[in-house]
Amino acid sequence: MTPFLKTPIEYLKGVGPQRAELLRTEIGVISFEDLLYYFPFRYVDRSQYHKISDLPYLENSAQIKGRIVQVLDAGSGRGKKLIAKFQDDTGVIDLVWFQGAKWIKNQLKIGEEYQLYGKAKLYGNSWHVPHPELTLISEITQHSGLQPIYSSTEKLSSKGLHSRGIEKLTSQLVKLIKDKIPESLPFDLLRNKQLISKEIALFLVHKPSDFTQVQHARKRLKFDELLLLQLELLLRKQIAMKKVKGFVFSEVGEVFNSFYNQYLPFPLTGAQKKVLKEIRQDVLQGKHMNRLVQGDVGSGKTLVALLTMLMAVGNGFQAALIAPTEILAGQHYETISSFLKDLPVSIRLLTGSTKKKQRVEIHESLENGQLNMLIGTHALMEDTVRFSNLGLVVIDEQHRFGVAQRAKMRAKNVSEPHILVMTATPIPRTLAMTFYGDLDVSVIDELPPGRKPITTVHRYESHRLRVFGFIKEEVEKGRQVYIVYPLIQESETLDFNNLMSGFEAISRAFPLPDYKISMVHGKMKPEEKDFEMQRFVAGDTQIMVATTVIEVGVNVPNASVMIIESAERFGLSQLHQLRGRVGRGAEQSYCVLMTGDKLSKDSLKRLETMVSTNDGFEIAEVDLQLRGPGDIMGTQQSGALNLKIADLAKDGELVTEAREEARKILSADPGLESKAHEMLRMLLSAVLRNKPDWGKIA
Ligand code: ADP
Ligand code: MG
Hints:
22 strands; Rossmann fold; binds adenosine-5'-diphosphate; 41% helix; binds magnesium ion; CATH 2.40.50.140
């Protein structure tokens, strides 16, 4: 990179060694480049002033001119605070500081004109402005346009580097950048996307004269960031694909055809067909398939998995299906065996509780190639389980499987088997693109016909009797009911007590012999859990009281009511997963979200979302807005979370555009060797410098 950008920050006028050290330790700014990329987090239009009398009616922070007429200490002990009376020609309002009172008191100048920036809050019955930003009018640098606001720290502020101090520095710096910022994007791309040059963007982001300029600058800088990220992800995928040749399934095969033509229980939905075609393309080409299939609960992923497994078998390969729990593995085994009962395909089930004798048989038939399909749990990944020719691994409900487990299965043949991962937890497209950069993503975005949408309602504690009455009606109709209690992660004991008192209340409201109740929770032994689950599955009990340990993906079509207790404690995707346990049969199903009276804004939004839609992708989008990508994806691959200016939750469209552009660029120039891509290549090398695989393409 050019030496200008790498110039140590202490050489900037107004910095010096002491401030340079602080800038480094407090906000990681070492070079000119770092400061240029230390973006304002908001802008204030300094030409707009409000009056004190407006304050109670404004939703956002506002700017006011006025004078401090009095300063006083109030409260005592921990409630100590500083109050300043601030006046303009419409009235007086209290400014309040709860911290740093002493220091602030010394700074305040009574009688001089200040510019205030803050937001009024109601305390008791009077309005205050807590911790406002105050600037002496006499000290305001003349602003022709917007004022950028930078985040600062206490230490920086104490050396004069509060937002305004930082602004003085950036404003110095942007005066120097003319002709110093090499353009990184190809000219054509800039023109097509109507993006401004990098140099101008870096100037305007710090010194805009209006909000349109802010928008242009931010869009350009976000695009840079997202394009690099997508290029990196695609390059990694490109590298991974070069390394691995995939098995070719040259034909769909005989078993596939006879199943499809004679035994398919219902016509495939359009979405199932589309995804199967995508899979077909992968396995036909000798490419190594690494595909994620997202489909809402009930969208028919099992059938897609089965058809893919049949393709493998028809081409002389073995296929494995891994589920996260014994119950699920068992259900898959039964469904699939019954689908295939008249076809020449051998299938076995392998779980932790498979008996020694059968286990030995399974191992043998796997190794001598007689067994075509193996369905099971983690047990299937053990080293003692060896295949003669494993061609495909399907992993159901991917969220419980990590990258390491996928790798383990891939190592079970001389060449790596194809991998198909199925998840019922919809992930917003932009996140999927970013976090599963190494996977191709297919979406089953259609439910089989004839499904009755689940009716969801929100009920308060005061409605409990009515809700119980409703449960009784449904049970009388022969239906079954889930009642789920939240898992309080901080305290298993509390969690348990909560469940137990719930169970007692339910037992009293639904007494024997008319009602039989099962209970499942985390402290039970697996066999006990299984036993209770099976009683419910078999219809011996009508009510299932459980914590969220209730099995993912479990299928009891006769269960038509899902009651979620303390629903405000659950996240959106969890609520949606739980609701997916009902609505699997022909009957109208219901989900009742029970909550207390006091709900936060976010809780309310979650409940409203659940009531208003059954669409998992819509729900995932709201979830992303509420929680942000970090919380949804965890800290894995946090690179994507270190974005400085782009926001995966808000910039979905730009993410998609960047992805498309990255794809175009790499398909035209896979090694980024052309002149137009020279800068991109350099930037990427910097990103990938410490990552060994880069060498293979560079
Ligand atoms: P999930 O995607 O949640 O794993 P499943 O594969 O368990 O969903 O399918 C849910 C239900 O829908 C099953 O009972 C299955 O037999 C049924 N199903 C799957 N595909 C179709 C289809 N094309 N038409 C009608 N019913 C279908
Ligand atoms: Mg499933």
